[in-house]
Amino acid sequence: MFRDLLIPEELWEKVLQKSLKKEKGESTQISRNLIQKLVLKKLRKKRSVKKYRKYGVTRQDLQEIIEMAQLLGLEFFGGPSDFEIIQNHPEWCNNCGKCCRESTPIFIHRDELNPLLLFNPDLKNEIIANPAYPEHYKFKEDLPCKFHDIEDKKCSIYDSRPQVCQSYPLILVEVENKPHYIPHLQPDCNYIISLVLEKSMILFDESLKKLNSN
Ligand code: SF4
Ligand code: SF4
Questions:
Q1: pLDDT tens across 72-125, in order?
Q2: Same domain as 55, residue 20
C-alpha cells in the first residue's frame, strides 16, 4: 500500500529491473535482505505498526518502504540526495574500519593521481595501473589498505585520501551517461544502516501524510 502511494507501479517495476540488472551475482541480493532485516528491527521501534494500525499500516508497508530506501534516492520524491543526507551525519560512521580493511580495489582516477603524488611523493611505488578500468589506478596493497592504521583506526593519508574513500559508503556509478552516487549496500557498515533507516523514516512519514490527505 505505502509504495503505491509514493510511486506508480509501472515506474517501480522499471527501478527494480534496473537494479537487478546492476546487481552482479547473489551477494548483493543477500546484502539487501540482511540490511532489510536490520533496518526493519530498528524501524519498528521508531514507527510502530501497532500505533498506525488504524490507518491500515502493516509490516509489509515497512518492508516496502525499506526496499524503496535501498534502491532510490529521496531526490526522486523531491527530498535531499543520499550525498546531502550523509554529509549532515558524520556521526553515523563508527570508525569500525571495515571499509579500509575489506574494499578492493581502491580506485584512484587519473585526475587525482598528480595531486595525490604531489602531497605524498612516497606513494609513487604504492600505486599501479588498474587494467580493468583504464582511467583509474589503484593501490598495490588494499586488503587491508596499507594506509589504514589498525591501532588508531585512522587513515594515515586522510587529507589526501582518494575521492572513492571520501565519498564512501556512497559509490559513483554511471546511470544513463551521468555520474550518480548510490549506497554501497554493505550490511556491516553502520553508516549504510543509518542511511537506509533515516530514508525509511522520511518515506514512512511522507506515505502517512498522503494516506491522511486521500
Ligand atoms: S564500514 Fe562504514 S561505519 Fe565502518 S568505518 Fe567504513 S564508513 Fe564507517
Ligand atoms: S586510503 Fe585511507 S581511507 Fe582510503 S581505504 Fe586506505 S586507509 Fe581507508
A1: 889 888 899 898 998 899 999 998 999 999 888 888 989 999 988 988 888 889
A2: yes
How many A from CA of 80 to the centre of ligand 2? Answer: 27
What is the rounded CA–CA span in Å between residue 137 and residue 154? 22
Give kind and range of the element (H or E) at residue 137. strand 136-139
Same domain, 87 and 190: yes
189 located within any domain? yes
Per-position DSSP letters for 19-82, written without gaps between them:
HHHH--SHHHHHHHHHHHHHHHHHHHHHS-TTTTGGGT--HHHHHHHHHHHHH--GGGGTS--H
Residues with CB under 6 A from ligand 2: 100, 106, 145, 147-148, 155, 157, 161, 165
User: Residue 53: which domain range?
Assistant: 2-91+176-213
| Same domain as 114, residue 42 | no
Confidence at 202, pLDDT banded by 50, 70, 90: very high
Does 208 reside within a domain? yes
Query: Which residue owns the Cα nearest ligand 1 atom 8?
Result: 93
Cell numbers describing residue 205: 512519514
* Number of independent structural domains in the chain: 2
Intra-chain end-to-end CA distance of the chain, in Å: 13
Q: Is residue 97 domain-resident?
A: no
* Residue 198 belongs to some domain of the structure: yes
CA distance linking residue 18 with residue 11, whole number of Å: 11
